[in-house]
Amino acid sequence: MTTINPQYIIDKKGNRVSVVIPVAEFEIIVEELEELEDIRLYDETKADNESSIPVDKAFEMIEAKRKSKK
Fold it and tell me: Which residues in 1-70 belong to E strands, given as ranges?
């Protein structure tokens, strides 16, 4: 678990309105969110029960499509 050290910006009434965190902590949060998104997409894909193709075949299909557009 990443430790976050936020600093809060408050308005005149003392309400928290913004958060400031170090860039390194922000980058860690972004990486973790991207990983969670990957996991979510994986779970959705597995739940669809659609047929799949090997990754090598997928790359071949993508390259063929790119070449046909030129």
Answer: 7-10, 16-20
pTM of the model: 0.59
Residue 42: inside a domain, yes or no?
A: yes
Domain of 57 in residue numbering reads as 7-69
The answer to the question of residue 65 being in a domain is yes
Amino acid identity, position 27: E
Residue 26 within a domain: yes
Q: What is the pLDDT of residues 16-27, one digit of tens each?
A: 999 999 999 999
d(CA 35, CA 32) in angstroms, rounded, equals 5
Please determine, for residue 33, whether its predicted confidence score (pLDDT) is greater than 90: yes
In a domain, 29, yes or no: yes
Task: Please give the Cα distance from 32 to 25 (Å, whole number).
Answer: 11
